[in-house]
């Protein structure tokens, strides 16, 4: 329908956010039934907001938090030790333990332990194999 006046971007985004009142929402839905241009704009905006941008960023941050959970716990314990002086030693102990757990769980630490064990046994081929894996991991 060429004679129809399309709503503004603010009204479209309000509809998408669900913040339009009852009458405005009904009018918007009525307009969308007859305007393919606004429908397409609404679908594209919804796809961009829901799947491509926000979810990927959230997943990236969640994966990073899970990977570094011991480090983040150690940081939290260190910070809390200053806010609760009565439990200073307990929080610092927790910080130390979680920091050690973070170091032990690190991929690089495990690789270095394997290299050291191969070196102690004197296994040249095993040592070369582990060192090649370490170079690949680092570079």
Q: Would you mind describing this structure in some detail?
A:
The chain is an all-alpha fold and 139 residues long. It folds into 2 domains: 9-65, Orthogonal Bundle (Arc Repressor Mutant, subunit A); 69-138, no CATH class. 84% of the residues lie in helices and 0% in strands. It has helices at 9-17, 22-34, 36-67, 69-83, 88-105, 107-121, 124-138. The longest helix has 32 residues, at 36-67.
- What are the secondary-structure elements, in order, as H or E? HHHHHHH
Span between termini: 60 Å
**Helices and strands: which structural class?**
mainly alpha
Residue-averaged pLDDT, rounded? 78
List keywords for this structure.
139 residues; Arc Repressor Mutant, subunit A; mainly alpha
What is this structure's SSE topology?
Elements: H1 9-17, H2 22-34, H3 36-67, H4 69-83, H5 88-105, H6 107-121, H7 124-138
Helix pairs in contact: 4-5, 6-7
